[in-house]
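Good morning N.,

You mentioned wanting to compare the apo and holo forms, so I went ahead and generated the holo version with 5'-deoxyadenosine. This is what I fed in:
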Amino acid sequence: MSGLFVKNYGCQMNVYDTNKLLDLLSSYNYKETQSIKEAGLVILNTCHVREKAVTKLYSDLGRINIIKQSYNPNMLIAVIGCVAQIQGNDLIKRFPYVNFVLGTQAIQNLPQLINELKGKTSKKLHSVDTRFLTDEKFKILNINTYVHQKISAFVTIQEGCDNFCTYCSVPNSRGREYSRDFHLIIDEIKYLAEQGIKEIMLLGQNVNSYKFVSDAKTYYIEDIFSEIDKIGGIERIRYLSPNPQGMRDDLIESYRSIRKLMPFVHLPLQSGSNRILKMMNRPYTTDEYLKMVEKFRNVRSDMMFSTDLIVGFPSETNGDFEDTINMVNIMQYPNGFYFKYSPRPHTVAASMPNQIDDKIKNQRFQELHELMLKYKEKSNSSFIGQVVNVLFENHGKFLNHITGKSEYFQNVFVKNGNENDIGKIKKVRIKSFNASNLEGEIID
Ligand code: 5AD
Ligand code: SF4
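and this is what came out, ligand included:
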């Protein structure tokens, strides 16, 4: 039995892919370890969306190689996912101690490559596979085996992107849009329900563009919602990430009838300036975005939103940045992710003129950060005294704490719960909050 060290960078889809890959490797006599020293196999599932994640990978690889040379020269290292897809052979050239480079749609080939090494004395084999074998990948990923997550589980329904936002590396790393077979998704969710999963998080780079045609019928994400609604045991449905473009009214309307849909939507705005949105190739205006929010709220008045924002996109002026600040003031997001623009290889924006100085990016980022914190605090404090429904998922940091999520995706912990509450939805009255959690008391 040999150790298996795994690290995921980037988004939830990598977590989903890696878990499926671990299932494929389950007969290979590896046992997961947190210690690289003990690892016979290292799997790094990588992210290319910003330079920072790639730099982190490089430094991790350096560290892992030192351990490989000092303790375990036979250690196999697999770099998979988005960086593997984009860099392919260049990764091996730069890091010759990496054995396998498998792109996002070729990860399923790892077990076979390991097999081919069996009986060979030299472990210096290098293998690079960056083919887009999406059909094969999902055929293999459809196998339902071990459930890695508790209570709440990811299910990828769609992968890739055809939008080509000018800053974004995803169309290159994940390929064109691909929607999984509707029936196989439902089978997977039924299986997860039988294993005790209570919440399903549907995943896709562009999750609301899910579209699967079979027997002359077209299935959309709302059809997945309706099917899950009928599956006993699953209490909550979430999805990540939808895009403002291609948001169909039918999706919004489904909140009327499907009570399992949680009233919290991540709706990436990216910029509050219509000029910058156009340069980003985001085909909506801020007015249209606000109208969409309005439509959601007309269907569910308590709907809350989070967002993604980028500062320092090429040519962004102080005025453009103020437009972003203005939208944040209107939306008062209780939560969100924000980034300094990071030029990515092979994207249109990387070669646009007027790239913004790091100093200005940092200043704008800091200003946005402070504003986002202000609205987070405002939102948190508005919950004091209110009762929310919490699905408990875990033990907290301290012995007597249990933690879970409210319907609005807030982290909530309580001290008056116990083991038996995990996996259940309880009414909790909120008493206080800190930077990342609400604290409350179970009242039923
Ligand atoms: N620079 C900075 N942020 C980016 N994102 C995507 N590409 C870039 C980039 N080149 C952000 C977007 C996206 C989130 C996943 O990452 O906000 O929604
Ligand atoms: Fe990162 Fe995007 Fe790849 Fe996810 S799909 S790992 S966010 S580059």
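The longest helix spans residues 358-382.

Happy to go through it together on a call whenever suits you.

Best,
F.
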